[in-house]
Amino acid sequence: MTTPWLGHCLCGAVQYEARGDSLAQLICHCRDCQRASGSAGLPVVVVRAADFSFTGEIRPYTKIGGSGMPTTRNFCAHCGSLLFATPHHAPDIVTLYAGTLDEPARFKPEFVQFASERHRLDAHQPDIPHHPRRAP
User: Fold this and answer.
1) 16 and which of 11, 54, 55, 78 could share a cystine (Cβ 3.0–4.6 Å)?
2) What is the 3 state secondary structure string of 45-111?
């Protein structure tokens, strides 16, 4: 049996579980993901909606996404962590934000989307110093 995908928000008030294998693992650089996360792009694990459940209070926010259809992003009602989304163009999936996984090392991206919207906020720049911990 496949190990479930488990995760939670910063304060621990919301926890989620997705059973089964992921359908895809990717990094999205669309402007909506950048703005929702405050980063250059979002690492995403796509799972079946039928295999997904969560506990705790969330706050949903719905906006027209890159598909031209609404996407609902779900945040913890207490700490504001961005946890998962439900794209309306694909109601049978849920997108988990890999930074909230209990085991983020399981995330293995297979592709990048909206690469044309990728920009200098992306931290994967080999020409600048990289520190294993906080910068001195």
Assistant:
1) 54
2) EEEEHHHEEEECCEEEEEEECCCCCEEEEEEECCCCCEEEEEECCCCCEEEEEHHHECCHHHCCCCE
